Amino acid sequence: MMDFISLTFFSRSENIKIARSVIQNFLAQKGIKEQDIFDTELAVNEAIANVIEHTYKFQRDKTIIMTLKWLEPNILEVYLRDFGEKVDPAKVKPRKLEEIRPGGLGVYIIKKIFNKMEFKDVENGNLLYLLKKYEI
């Protein structure tokens, strides 16, 4: 059975907590292990933070739409939609781990936690697609 939930919110850092809470509750209902839920929250947190910082340049009144789609028995799809400047997927890559400096690890974390990360082509803005298969 397929299940989904969608949340639309302004590009404010404090709204990431709400998005994380939705993810946490959604996955808990599916019986996903706590550590897997935390990892998923962390990765989506990074993706939303990247939209706020890089796409919207910390403007607090821009729209982000997060959709979670559950495909039985164990697959989560996350769609993150923004309406900012187009992102060049070729430029979205993690920094080298040996570079000791703050920041730049969001994409590394996302790719480590999710099985798939790709940008879908949309008319305006960006649509980040993430897919995760859970061990059940």
Strand content: 25-35%
What is the string of SSEs from the N terminus onward?
A: EHHEEHEE
Number of strands: 5
Q: For the largest sheet, list the strands in their spatial order.
A: 1-2-3-5-4
- Tell me, briefly, the overall form: globular
Assigned CATH architecture? 2-Layer Sandwich
- The percent range for helix content is 25-40%
**Relevant CATH superfamily:** Histidine kinase-like ATPase, C-terminal domain
Structural features, described:
It is a single chain. By secondary structure, this protein is of the alpha+beta class. A hairpin with a 3-residue loop joins strand 2 and strand 3. It has three helices and five strands; from the N terminus they run E-H-H-E-E-H-E-E. Helix 1 runs antiparallel to helix 2 and helix 2 runs antiparallel to helix 3. A five-stranded antiparallel β-sheet has the order 1-2-3-5-4. It starts with a strand and ends with a strand. The chain has one domain: 2-Layer Sandwich (Heat Shock Protein 90), CATH 3.30.565.10. Pfam families: HATPase_c_2. Keywords: Kinase, Serine/threonine-protein kinase, Transferase. InterPro entries: Anti-sigma-factor_SerPK (IPR050267), HATPase_C_sf (IPR036890), HATPase_dom (IPR003594). This is Anti-sigma regulatory factor.
Short description:
The chain is α+β, with helices and mostly antiparallel strands and 136 residues long.
Helix/strand layout:
Blueprint: E1 2-10, H1 15-29, H2 34-55, E2 63-71, E3 75-82, H3 106-113, E4 116-120, E5 126-133
Antiparallel strand pairs: 1-2, 2-3, 3-5, 4-5
Keywords: Kinase, Serine/threonine-protein kinase, Transferase
Domain Histidine kinase/HSP90-like ATPase: 12-130
Protein name: Anti-sigma regulatory factor
